[in-house]
Design a protein that fits this description.
- The protein is of the alpha+beta class.
- It has a single domain, classed as NADH Oxidase (3-Layer(aba) Sandwich), CATH 3.40.109.10.
- About 40% of the residues lie in helices and about 15% in strands.
- The protein has seven helices and four strands, in the order H-H-E-H-H-E-H-E-H-E-H.
- The chain has a four-stranded antiparallel sheet, with helices on both faces.
- The model has no long low-confidence stretch (mean pLDDT about 95).
- The structure holds flavin mononucleotide.
- The site of flavin mononucleotide has 11 residues, from strand 3.
- Pfam families: Nitroreductase.
């Protein structure tokens, strides 16, 4: 086990603090070896029963990307129409995806019943495969941040329609659609906070104890 120095720990905490959901991207691509390495690191995440249920899909086909973009536009319009008055106005001003500019799109799917892991740990909690995939996404997100690569998670899409657009195994569950590329701006606070939509909860010092 390597020794993690106090300096490293400080930098690690900075990494947690500075990881952002990115919606504004530069258009220049991330070099392939860098992306490959990030996806490899993502696969170091923990998983239920060591099932490694994540499936990363690089979406390169411009027609598929465009179809996903249209799906986002449709879902976002639906989300807006559910709101009224000042709330709708504030929602309409938000930018909730960087699908136009991000040079890379990565869909993350999850196998709900992977043979790997032999079912261990998911008998009573079958959702643990999805959660394992989320762990891999977070690992990817942090590793990307550490090398200056931005990641934006898009969930305002219809998972069934997007799965059909991607033409992947219909038994796979769509967990995330990620925009990836170099950020056009960096910030130490979430964009939703900077735009007055929501604020981080104050640092909690009291924990529930039983
Ligand atoms: C499961 C999940 C889904 C998300 N979906 C979206 C989304 O559809 N659009 C978006 O702009 N941000 C999305 N986000 C990003 C959050 O808005 C963001 O993480 C939050 O505002 C905190 O900002 P930060 O990640 O920069 O700290 C999502 C994040 C998570 C974890």
């Amino acid at each position: 086990m390597p020794e993690f120095t106090p300096l490293f720990m400080d930098q690690l905490h900075d990494l947690f603090r500075w990881r952002r959901d990115v919606r504004h991207f530069r258009r220049d691509p991330v070099p392939e070896p860098v992306l490959d390495e990030l996806l490899r690191v993502a696969c170091l995440a923990p998983s239920v029963g060591l099932s490694e249920p994540w499936r990363f899909v690089r979406v390169d086909d411009p027609r598929r990307r465009d179809a996903v973009r249209q799906d986002f536009t449709r879902c976002n319009a639906d989300a807006l129409s559910d709101r009224t008055g000042a709330d709708a106005l504030r929602y309409a001003r938000l930018k909730l995806a960087g699908l136009d500019d991000a040079p890379h799109h990565i869909a993350v799917l999850s196998h709900p019943e992977p043979a790997q892991g032999r079912g261990l740990g998911r008998g009573t909690m079958p959702q643990t495969t999805t959660w394992s995939t989320v762990m891999a996404i977070h690992t990817f997100w942090l590793a990307a941040t550490a090398v200056g690569v931005g990641v934006g998670w898009v969930s305002i899409i219809d998972p069934e329609r997007v799965r059909a657009i991607l033409d992947v195994d219909p038994t796979l569950e769509l967990v995330a659609y990620l925009c990836v590329g170099y950020p056009a701006e960096v910030a130490s606070t979430p964009e939703l906070e900077r735009r007055g939509w929501e604020r981080r909860a104050p640092e909690r010092r009291e924990w529930i104890r039983r």
